[in-house]
Design brief:
This is Aldo/keto reductase. Pfam families: Aldo_ket_red. Belongs to the aldo/keto reductase family. InterPro entries: AKR, Aldo/ket_reductase_CS, NAD(P)_OxRdtase_dom_sf, NADP_OxRdtase_dom. The structure is a single chain. This protein has a single domain, classed as NADP-dependent oxidoreductase domain (TIM Barrel, Alpha-Beta Barrel). It is of the alpha/beta class. Helices cover 40% and strands 16% of the residues. Helix 5 links the parallel strand 7 and strand 8. The strands form two sheets. An eight-stranded parallel beta sheet has the order 3-4-5-6-7-8-9-10. The chain has a two-stranded antiparallel sheet with strand order 1-2. The longest helix has 14 residues.
Length: 267
């Protein structure tokens, strides 16, 4: 006799971005997941209860993510979908977005990001195109990725409008209270990627907390993000790990644990 695994307890926390779109704090990342693996992993994430999917033009998996979403039976308006435009496509931003929408089988995305900074006037020029795309209803919210505070100010000054969110590498090893404060002073939400990379899962301070609270190191790291109100997008191709990473609503970290995790990077 086989038993179905218990359903994960997913957090339902969202963050309201400037402009009004609500982004789930927990999402499913798809970087480096391609082909049939991308379909299977995205399907597993949706089945586990994730309602936020993160992809990008350069990931080469928008079609697979779109197929998984289309075949999932989950209503479109229940899933927050992010994709990204590389600065190499500056001047052709809308063509890139229309291609992304075609591959994703969508008429709009919930969040569209400049994937990384370009040189010279590229960022400001792209940002103007992004504002037009949002005004045309092709993206509910627009933001950037891998920008620093100076670049955030640059695009804001060019258009009078700040990015809704900045997606950056983030984990306890990379925590920087100044960076968080800089974003919040500008009304820019922070979204972290690569949370489970760089040795975080093996760090003794993190594993000690995980052992004490009876959770995996990954669950502790994801929970840390949620309690900081930083969006987190863990990725995996393993269905059980995908479920486990989402099972973070049933516990919380105390102030001492949060402070200890903040101090892991020594900043």
């Amino acid at each position: 006799m086989t038993h179905e695994p218990a359903a994960p307890q997913l957090p339902r926390q969202t963050l309201t971005l400037s402009g009004g779109a609500d982004i789930p704090l927990l999402g499913f990342g798809t970087w480096q997941i391609t082909g049939d693996d991308a379909v299977r992993a995205t399907s597993a994430a949706l089945e586990a209860g994730y309602r936020h999917l993160d992809t990008a033009t350069v990931y080469g998996n928008e079609a697979e993510v779109g197929r998984a979403l289309a075949e999932s039976g989950v209503p479109r308006d229940e899933v927050f979908v992010t994709t990204k435009c590389p600065p190499d496509d500056a001047g052709n931003e809308l063509d890139t977005l229309h291609r992304s929408l075609e591959l994703l089988q969508l008429d709009h995305v919930d969040l569209w990001l400049i994937h990384w900074p370009g040189a010279g006037s590229v960022n400001a020029d792209m940002w103007r195109a992004f504002v037009k795309a949002r005004e045309a209803g092709l993206a509910r919210a627009i933001g950037v990725s891998n920008f620093d505070a100076e670049l955030l100010d640059e695009v804001t000054e060019a258009t009078g409008e700040a990015p809704a969110i900045n997606q950056v590498r983030w984990s306890p090893l990379l925590f920087d209270a100044t960076v968080l404060a800089e974003h919040r002073a500008r009304g820019v939400a922070v979204e972290g990627y690569s949370a489970l990379r760089g040795g975080t899962l093996e760090h003794p301070a993190i594993t000690a907390i995980a052992d004490r609270v009876g959770r995996t190191p990954a669950q502790v790291i994801i929970r840390w993000h949620l309690q900081h109100e930083v969006v987190v997008i863990p990725k995996s191709v393993d269905a059980e790990r995908i479920r486990s990473n989402a099972d973070v609503a049933g516990f919380s970290l105390g102030d001492e644990d949060m402070a200890a995790l903040d101090a892991v990077g020594g900043r």
